[in-house]
Q: What sequence folds into this?
């Protein structure tokens, strides 16, 4: 234990006694397959000593170093497990080129030996909604395994001691590490007949009363003081942003105290005037939680609540996992609608592709442009990668609009390959560069983007032999309000224009379109008439705002001095995107 404290960095500080309790609970959970009454009645052979040792090592590793990042897990594997000659799997360099550790393996109960984790198969939905897609990875699969094992521990550890079992799991991780997605994927496997799922999002303003109201709305009375979830189901309560409630002047988080009471004492006190002060027993509840790493503006949580959970860290996904996530999405969107050269540059397994290039840009940007007190928003996580591909996916998803084939409307007439690279550069600029606050940082990012554009695609064999390598650095503008109204040939009525996110032929073309929209706005709202001059910077800001407003669940925070056009451009962009401006 002393070595662990000195040499490992725990992303959430946890006392030794809690980690030992976590170890005993996880060991009990993984042994359940071999010790429960169901397994004993089967023809399953008894657990051998070596097999027990492997289960012991698995539980020991996850409880003692599960709250660490990947590098510390590798150190734990080398300095503790290797040193003490633990019965480990045959470790090798994985397919991703990264050194595997015990955390990449689990004990397969059928083979009675170590097996490497593999991502669960993704079942493609009938309708692909990019913002709601949940793609399983190796990280999410092994996390779901622990969630499942802990949830199936007995709720009562000892009737004699009146000790409750620990069946809850808390996932700790940085922003964008798929903590919430992992739990949502786990919940999708619930049997709706016997199980229910309740999600509660904590915030700084969440009070104990808010929490109790949320619970009371989901339970029904069985008898005078005993309550169960509606339908007498087993309900799992998922608390997201678990550490967010306000810390009071004594260092306590009152909302977490009532949460702990519900978990520990299996009930709450009546708030109604007639029964105030009487205890309400609530059974058949299980809990899951997700929270950011403590520090850097995020709260820690008291040890009193930590002991109610098995906790582990969700590390940043590996490059291989990221390739798998976005590769599956883009391949699903492409289907058989595009030629091989288009599919290859989007998500091909051989040669350069946009996913690999995006990862390289993301890694370099997050390493170069660091947070400071005045640049606290310089946070570049996997969500930035998702935003880059959201724009690309919106174009790829509907080939009937002819955006990629129609790239020839541009004066430079780029091939489909060059057009996709240009679109990727545009989405990178919108996602990364628009966050930056000064010209020097923007220049630094432009150099990073140009560098990796050349490195990743310089050796690409262009389908069009006339393509020049210098055209790789062509920057495009995109807008979704470039198409005109159409006339219905049968009725003669005017149909509204299609909103298609596509490249602009040139700056002057999209400027004229913007002035046309401004004229229509002034005709419709003469009282709020705006006389705007759309110089280049104003036009580019308008395109940025319109792009985000057209994105599902798109939110934008505009920062600037008074009189810089934030309100006017937002009003015009809202009109263009047919949004209500308030």
A:
């Amino acid at each position: 234990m002393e070595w662990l404290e000195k040499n490992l960095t725990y992303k959430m500080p946890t006392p030794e006694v809690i980690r030992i309790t976590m170890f005993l609970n996880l060991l009990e959970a993984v042994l359940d397959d071999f010790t429960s009454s169901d397994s004993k009645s089967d023809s399953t052979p008894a657990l051998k000593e070596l097999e027990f040792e492997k289960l012991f090592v698995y539980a020991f590793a996850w409880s003692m170093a599960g709250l660490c990042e990947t590098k510390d897990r590798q150190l734990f594997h080398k300095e503790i497990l290797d040193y003490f000659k633990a019965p480990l799997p045959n470790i090798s360099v994985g397919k991703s080129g990264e050194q595997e550790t015990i955390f990449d393996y689990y004990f397969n109960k059928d083979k009675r030996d170590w097996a490497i984790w593999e991502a669960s198969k993704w079942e493609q939905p009938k309708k692909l909604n990019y913002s709601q897609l949940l793609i399983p990875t190796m990280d999410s699969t092994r996390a779901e395994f622990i969630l499942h094992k802990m949830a199936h521990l007995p709720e009562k550890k000892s009737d004699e001691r009146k000790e409750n079992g620990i069946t809850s799991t808390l996932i700790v991780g940085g922003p964008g590490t798929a903590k919430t997605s992992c739990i949502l994927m786990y919940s999708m496997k619930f049997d709706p007949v016997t199980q229910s799922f309740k999600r509660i999002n904590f915030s700084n303003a969440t009070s104990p009363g808010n929490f109790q109201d949320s619970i009371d709305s989901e339970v029904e009375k069985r008898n005078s003081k005993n309550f169960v979830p509606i339908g007498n189901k087993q309900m799992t309560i998922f608390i997201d942003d678990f550490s967010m409630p306000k810390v009071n002047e004594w260092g306590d988080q009152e909302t977490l105290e009532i949460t702990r009471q519900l978990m520990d004492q299996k009930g709450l006190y009546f708030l109604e005037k007639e029964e105030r002060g009487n205890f309400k027993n609530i059974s058949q509840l299980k809990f899951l939680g997700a929270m950011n790493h403590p520090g850097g503006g995020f709260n820690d949580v008291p040890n009193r609540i930590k002991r109610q959970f098995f906790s582990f860290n969700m590390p940043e996904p590996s490059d291989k996992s990221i390739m798998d996530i976005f590769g599956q999405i883009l391949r699903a969107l492409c289907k058989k609608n595009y030629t091989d050269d288009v599919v290859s540059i989007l998500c091909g397994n051989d040669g350069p592709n946009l996913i690999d290039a995006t990862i390289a840009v993301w890694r370099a940007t997050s390493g170069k442009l660091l947070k400071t007190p005045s640049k606290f928003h310089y946070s570049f996580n996997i969500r930035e990668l998702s935003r880059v591909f959201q724009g690309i996916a919106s174009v790829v998803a509907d080939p009937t609009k002819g955006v990629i084939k129609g790239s020839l409307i541009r004066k430079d007439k780029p091939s489909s390959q060059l057009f996709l690279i240009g679109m990727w550069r545009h989405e990178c600029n919108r996602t990364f560069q628009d966050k930056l606050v000064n010209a020097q940082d923007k220049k630094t990012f432009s150099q990073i983007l140009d560098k990796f554009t050349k490195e990743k695609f310089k050796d690409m064999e262009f389908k069009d032999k006339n393509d020049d390598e210098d055209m790789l650095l062509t920057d495009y503008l995109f807008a979704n309000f470039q198409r005109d109204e159409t006339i219905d040939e049968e009725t003669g009525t005017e149909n509204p224009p299609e909103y298609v996110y596509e490249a602009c032929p040139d700056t002057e073309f999209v400027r004229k379109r913007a002035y046309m929209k401004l004229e229509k706005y002034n005709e419709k709202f003469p009282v709020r008439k705006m006389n705007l001059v759309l110089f280049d910077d104003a036009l580019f800001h308008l395109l940025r705002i319109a792009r985000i407003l057209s994105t599902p669940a798109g939110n934008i925070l505009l920062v600037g001095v008074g009189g810089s056009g934030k309100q006017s451009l937002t009003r015009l962009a809202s009109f263009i995107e047919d949004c209500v401006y308030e």
